[in-house]
Structure prediction request, 956 residues.
Amino acid sequence: MSSEGLKPRWLRLRARFVIFVLSGVAVVAAAMAMVSHLEASHALLNSSQEQLLDLASSQAAELARRLEKVSAPARNLAVTLEVVGVASEEMANELVSQNLVANPRVYGMALALAPYSFSPDRRVFSSYAYRSPQGLKVTDLNSPAYDYPSQNWYLVPALLGRGVWSEPYFDEGGGNILMSTYSAPMVKKGKVLGVVTADVDLGYLGREVRSLAVTEGGYAFLITHQGNFLAGPRDELVMRQSIFSLAEELNNPKLRQLGRRMIRGASGVVKIKDPISKRDAWLAYAPVKGVGWSFGVVAPEDAVLAPVNDLTRHQVYFALGGLAIMGIVVLIMVVGLTKPVKMLTHGAKRLAGGDLLCRVTGIRPGDEVGELAHTFNTMATDLHAHVEELKRKKQELEDSLHRIELLENIQNTLSKFVPTSVKARIDEAPEAPDLNKRETDVSVLFLDVAGYTKMSEQVNGEDMNFLIERYFSSFLDDIYQNHGDINETAGDGLMIIFQDDDPVQHAINAVNTALAVGSKVAKVNQELAGRFQPVSINIGVNSGTALVGSSRFEGIAGTRWTFTASGSVTNNAARIGALATEGKIFIGPETAKRVGDRFELTSIGPQRLKNVAEAIEVFQVLGVKGA
Amino acid sequence: MGLMGKLKYAAGALLLCALLLAPAGAEALTKVSLQLQWVHQAQFAGFYLAQDLGLYRKAGLEVEIRPGGPGIEPLSELATLRCDFALSWLSEALVMRSKGVDLVNLAQLVQRSALMLVVFNDSGIRTVKDLDGRRVGLWQRQFAAPPRALFAKLGISVNEVSQNVSMAPFLQRAVDAATAMLYNEYHQLYQAGVDRDEITIFDFAEQGMNFPEDGLYTLEDTWRDRPEVCKAFVRASLEGWRRAFVEQELALASVMKRVNAANLASNPAHQRWMLKSMKDLYTHRVGTVLMGQLSPYDLLQVNRVLVAQGFIPEPIEAKGFVAEAWRQP
Prediction:
């Protein structure tokens, strides 16, 4: 019932129950899974970060060791030559070839003397041995176009006075390979005598770095002290991009900061958005000591977290399975609960539909629902009893009403025959109406249709009745309005009694009635003119004290009660009326006294009336004063 | 589409075919060649774009753009008739002309010198004067003229180190200062992890040594015999540059196409920087309308320094040397 303006629930009890319970359980399960996932991830990330850094450091150390094996022969030779000096080209050629043969990791070796240091008339002096595809080759680097003293591998160590690894470069003269050169200067008494160099094949190095198995989807990379890629996840990066150019292209200042830390020889682990795969990843970096390069390994976070994700996935599966089973259990329980409720609802509906004999059966007693079912059945029984009782009472009531109706009908019918005064008396005390005669001050009006006897001879009975009804009903309303009681009808006349607490008022009422009747008759005469002879009504009114009440007439057929005013006032009224002709209204002296200031009266002089000793003065009513 | 529309469409397609085929068939193109100063890079983006957009073809030319590199001197190529047009710095051209090579300046492209010296802030060098007695990497030949003139003017003496194409000696602190071009080495330092606020630059243009750089040159004979070809080439080239400054990404694509084809060690970020810089250098003072104009003041200034440094015995006059092939008729 939405009588309280409540919003109806949009789910039935069963669905609601299942959803609430399951979502509660699901929230708890999810929270547990999340906590375990976070903790496991955290632990795993920590350990794998360490692992990643270890990997970067060990690889960087391994690389440094290998490069040391390339730089050491050059450094040793330089130190030796600082002491013994270079005697001839042959000696130089032999030294570099022998060293190259003895050091398989070295791609090529050179000995280059400072300008004019071999002899004042010779600017350049050099010897170079390298591994060509055709085997070991020995040559020199003396071409004026090449001008080795201006090459970085010579220039930088010579200027700095210490061993230096060059930036990688493509050696287009030799094996057309990507190489880097270590140059060790020969310094004697602060003067640079020349440099000894050893080249390393970076193509080989790069392949090794690339083949480093890190993590699935991860990779290793190597950058130089200028940030240039020596080896990386994509070949096109090598020697084209630096970590800084990549940062610039990607507009990624963080990557630039990382690059700056790397080329300064720092080590660490950072979380990055991998520019290659665009995924979250962890990057560990460590310096390649002695060279100034930096080694990095990248492991995608999802690969690192794969075991945790697997674990979490399993947890989710278990949780979903558990939820399904839970759902079934809850459903069974809820069905057990809601089935009796449904039965009760059904029973209540039938009850509401009027089936009072309906009882809910099949609900086990012993719990709340059982109690409810019992209460329902008891209620139904009580209700049935009540309704039966009600029905009986209703029948009685209906019977009474029927009787009252009959009585009312009788009253209505009878009241047409009972004068208002009698009705008033009965209404005053219906149980025991006082119908005894009482002395009451009244006005009595006698009304006579002039020439009634003559008229009844001229027109037939039907027309006669029509005329009487037509005239009489025309002034019946006036009589009632003026509270007159029609007392007697006698063919062509009426006796009307007027009563009022105020003796003047009923006299006025009587005269008013007389005037009204006069004008009504004139109107009806006009309407019927041409069809019937006009009728004139003569009226006599007298006022005074009379015996008013019922008179009983005992007869053979039974007793008949009549209500009337009897006495001389009535007799006189009738006789005064008999005096009136041509529709005149005559009133007695008592009436005239009472209404004299209201109506225009004229005396017709004292008249002798039948059975009355003294002559009494009779007045004719001409109309309302001032009208 | 109505019939008229279809007809228009067909007509358009035909016209396009005609345009594509016409140069090959109907009208023979004049073959010319341009020698660049260096390997393919955004320093020459306008020429690439003129070629890729067909501006040369429209001018009736088929242009071969030859990249330079170490050991290739464009003006020598021009002098030995191995190319029709060459790019060169004004100073280099003046030296060549004083040596008797009759070359003319068809258009001066780079108005502002991009040449600079760079020093690390932590070297303690604050002004050019602080370079006194320090190792300074200098490119040789006439590239060394502006710094030498500046040092002479300031009365300082530096330890000159012959500098090659690499900034490694500077980065490894083998030299205290190095020569750099705004559009190239300066940005290479950035791409080597050096932040802008870690270095100080001494800009030669700001030091009163504005040597106009890249200009288009040809031999006097060529200019006399085929002035229309020269003008057509210069104007189409300048149009290519104007387009390149507006449609930088398009120009960059043209640059990278050549850079990748030549397997050069460069990257798009660097070339983008270079192109942006070239726009400033080309439109400095002249805007895009007077592109090609050689400022007489700059000519005077370069002459003075070259004479003072002993590169040329006497100044080269504008008359006969400056051929304003860029001017619109």
The interface with chain B takes residues 145, 149-152, 155-156, 159-160, 164, 166-167, 225-228, 239-246, 248-249, 256, 259-260, 263 of chain A (CB under 8 Å). The first helix of chain A runs from residue 13 to 84.
